[in-house]
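Q: Could you fold this chain for me?
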Amino acid sequence: PAAGAFAFRKAGAARRRRGGAAQGRQRWRSDGRALQKLPVHMGLVVTEEEPSYADMASLVVWCMAVGISYVSVYDHNGIFKRNNSRLMDEILKQQQELLGLDCSKYTIEFANQDKADQVLNCQSTLKVLSPEDGKADIVKAAQNFCQLVAQQQRTHTDLDVNVLDNLLSSTNGFPDPDLVLKFGPVDSTLGFLPWHIRLTEIISLPSHLNISYEDFFSALHHYAACEQRWGK
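A: Sure. Below is the predicted structure, expressed as structure tokens.
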């Protein structure tokens, strides 16, 4: 869908939190329950050149608050992944600011490949990705399959969608994304998990900078109302 389908508002951080954290928590919980369907795994893809840690952290915390179990954060320059600890610190800060005393109910696991030991008791799971994750994993899967053929455990005719799915490991137990929110003017996901999004609903928004909760929820509402035909 075109980004113009949503009334994008430059809300700013102060206005975004206006009304108090308690009121926000109640609204987010009820919003999540009210939706006809909620993505299990959401991808947040930034195609802009200068990503904002604070705005991305707000998006992640909103995902947690409405009940989304898996979140992937991606930018095509790998900035978030290279500065993973900075993003994590901002998310923990936003948890406290936006969720307040309820913060303990929304704990999150950081399933980052480079820092697998940074795990908290989890209700939501976050993975920070960069372009090499999707492409490198497909190459590795192809190499593994060729090795099986060389060892006569497989034949080349065995390769199909299900076999490749089993060989791929980039999501480390993540389901394929149900919904991707793509931020920025580029009409491309720029390498975000190229295999895993073949059936994913993709919604474009003009920017993640100063994004409001209303814009986020409008995208969720659009996803809940859409009819997915799974390629048929």
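A (continued): The first helix runs from residue 13 to 16.
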